[in-house]
Design goal:
Helices cover 54% and strands 10% of the residues. It is of the alpha/beta class. It has five domains: 86 residues, 2-Layer Sandwich (Gyrase A, domain 2), CATH 3.30.1360; 164 residues, HUPs (Rossmann fold); 84 residues, no CATH class; 60 residues, no CATH class; 110 residues, Isoleucyl-tRNA Synthetase, Domain 1 (Orthogonal Bundle), CATH 1.10.730. The radius of gyration is 29 Å and the shape is globular. The chain starts with a helix and ends in a 9-residue tail after the last helix. The chain binds arginine.
């Protein structure tokens, strides 16, 4: 139980003791204080209840102040129109920190009802290398998966790659025009990209070629042997290339159930939709129309054209008989519920696909998948310094691998300048770690819905809200133990806090469990990222204000425990962001 919960219980029993009836217990809350000058926690319960009781809120607060049994845990005061403020005693803070330090999982409370959560993330369209846009889904998805698993959910990570779409028609067409076998061996992804671009450029100007590409896709989808062989080869090569980047990013999947895995399910699915009256033919295609259960404004199957609401159906079979992205996604919901018993599916996908997911979720409900919570965890765009979506000089989206390499190069300069490491190999390893993880941390420290400017120099800097700053904080909190050698043994009883900076550090550290849980409330890793920065800042203030090695006896031991706890929270929290820590920098 967190301290806020504990105080809330005390408050509820005080209310009972005063004979005050609480109509809606959920409205009795104790939260972190908005302003630390007034206390550590606060409650507005007196203001909420006073009106119904016909009483003055400050008087009610005063009654509560007298009635609450604080157990010596905190001092109470009243502020403003009737806020009840709780200021924890130094003793209480020390106890909290001690039990966190003694707990193996740093006091993270597990969820009471674990759910089976499928996380659908990364999911690039293969046969093309990953570009910068893929970083968002990949990194946010990995972090959410780690956090959900940490609090006790059963997590299934699925990479729903686009391995069956139009791009394969194009690659196959260009392949047949002439694939460079040598290059395919050496740099497979670059050769595949070249093929894709060849077809894409050629078909832009030429309707006939566009048709030929489509025909190659249809042949593939009908099971043509030659095209299937080409497809297989492309797929294997692409996957190898992707694996390499995922390894570098420390991202792993439980499954790679790409679009092609659902091929056989599509025809029966559409038959079922038609038989159940959910889908019907329209202009030669099979479509799902609105269920007409909401006003058009909130109806994903309606679109406003020139001031008029028109149908905007979801197409599940095109007029050429082919199935599409939407059909596959419906089959995927079916599969995940049936085979994996999913209670929830989180789709970590660009906000531009919001319309698609709204239609998908609505249709799934109408098909009877009512017990599974389907969530679109959407995100915004990465911008260049000019404020426009990030592009290379040639106007393409930068390839993810190039971006990572550039980040490592930038990190290398910082390492050259600042690092105490001696050997070239150590420095190179550190630069790789800093470069890659700076890109990841930058991603995770922004609100997922906001666009952000991609600025390599800023993200690898040692000062600022950056990964290197956090990594350095970790190293600093450990360095003291290296100086001491193996011989320290620490006892929890020694933990005492009295200096302001000690209290503040403990206040931050003991919030860890709450902060981890909060990430899942609205799928926001940035809450954890910002929290870790606050921990790091609190640690540096403490470290500057309170001598550790130069202090003596219990004070020294107590401060060593604070260093140890800080390093553990930082390491554990960073691991949830999929960021490993170095031992030296
Ligand atoms: N491959 C898709 C794209 O690149 C993303 C797939 C997301 N997942 C899903 N189940 N639709 O746009």
């Amino acid at each position: 139980m967190t301290i806020a919960h504990h105080l809330r219980e005390k408050l509820l029993s005080a209310l009972t003791g005063l004979g005050v009836e609480v109509p809606v217990p959920d409205r009795v809350q104790v939260t972190k204080a908005a302003d630390l000058r007034f206390g550590d926690f606060q409650s507005n319960v007196a203001m909420i209840l006073a009106k119904g009781l016909g009483r003055n809120p400050r008087e009610l607060a005063a009654d509560l102040q007298a009635a609450i049994d604080t157990d010596g845990l905190c001092d109470l005061s009243i502020a403003g129109p009737g806020f009840l403020n709780f200021t924890l005693t130094d003793h209480a803070w020390a106890d909290l920190a001690r039990s966190q330090w003694e707990s193996e999982n740093l006091g993270i409370t597990p969820v009471t009802e674990p759910r089976t959560i499928v996380i659908d993330f990364s999911a690039p369209n293969v046969a093309k290398p990953m570009h910068i846009g893929h970083i968002r889904s990949t990194i946010i998805g990995e972090c959410l998966a780690r956090v959900a698993a940490k609090v006790g959910h059963r997590v299934i990570k699925d990479n729903h790659i686009g391995d069956w779409g139009t791009q394969f028609g194009m690659v196959t067409w260009a392949w047949k025009q002439g694939v460079d076998r040598n290059r395919l061996e050496g740099e497979p992804l670059q050769e595949l990209l070249r093929l894709y671009r060849t077809a894409s450029d050629a078909s832009k100007e030429n309707e006939e070629i566009r048709e030929e590409c489509r025909a190659e896709l249809v042949k593939l989808q009908q099971g043509d042997g030659e095209n299937l062989a080409i497809w297989n080869e492309c797929l294997e090569l692409s996957k190898k290339g992707l694996e390499k980047i995922y390894r570098r990013l420390d991202v792993r999947f439980d499954h790679w159930m790409g679009e092609s895995a659902y091929n056989d399910a599509l025809a029966p699915l559409v038959e079922r939709l038609e038989a159940e009256g959910l889908a019907r033919e329209s202009d030669g295609a099979v479509c799902i129309f609105s269920g007409e259960t909401d006003v058009p404004k909130n109806d994903p199957f309606k679109i406003n054209r020139d001031g008029e609401w028109q149908d905007y159906p979801m197409i599940v079979r095109k007029n050429d008989g082919g199935f599409n992205y939407a059909t596959t996604d419906l089959a995927t919901v079916e599969y995940r519920v049936r085979e994996w018993k999913a209670d929830e599916v989180w789709y970590v996908v660009d906000f531009r696909q919001g319309g698609h997911f709204a239609q998908l979720f609505d249709t799934s409900k109408r098909m009877g998948y009512r017990d599974v919570d389907l969530v679109h965890v959407s995100f915004g765009t990465i911008l260049g310094k000019d404020g426009k979506p990030l592009k290379t000089r040639a106007g393409d989206l930068p390839q993810l691998e190039d971006v990572l390499n550039d980040a490592v190069k930038a990190a290398r300069e910082v390492v050259e300048e600042k690092s105490h490491l001696e050997t070239l190999a150590e420095k190179a390893e550190l630069a790789e770690l800093i470069g890659v993880n700076s890109v990841k941390f930058t991603e995770l420290s922004h609100h997922r819905m906001s666009d952000y400017v991609f600025d390599l120099e800023k993200m690898v800097a040692l000062e600022g809200d950056t990964a290197p700053y956090l990594l350095y904080s970790y190293v600093r909190s450990r360095s003291i133990f290296r100086k001491l050698g193996e011989s320290v043994s620490l006892r929890g009883e020694s933990l005492k806090v009295s200096e302001n900076s000690e209290v503040h550090l403990v206040r931050m550290l003991t919030r860890y469990s709450d902060q981890v849980h909060q990430v899942l409330e609205d799928y926001r890793p940035n809450l954890l990222a910002t929290y870790l920065l606050e921990v790091a800042r609190a640690f540096h203030s403490f470290f500057e204000a309170c001598p550790v090695l130069k202090s003596e006896g219990e004070t020294r031991e107590s401060r060593l425990i604070l260093c140890d706890l800080t390093s553990r929270v930082l390491q554990d929290g960073l691991a949830l962001l999929a960021i490993p820590v170095p031992e030296r920098m």
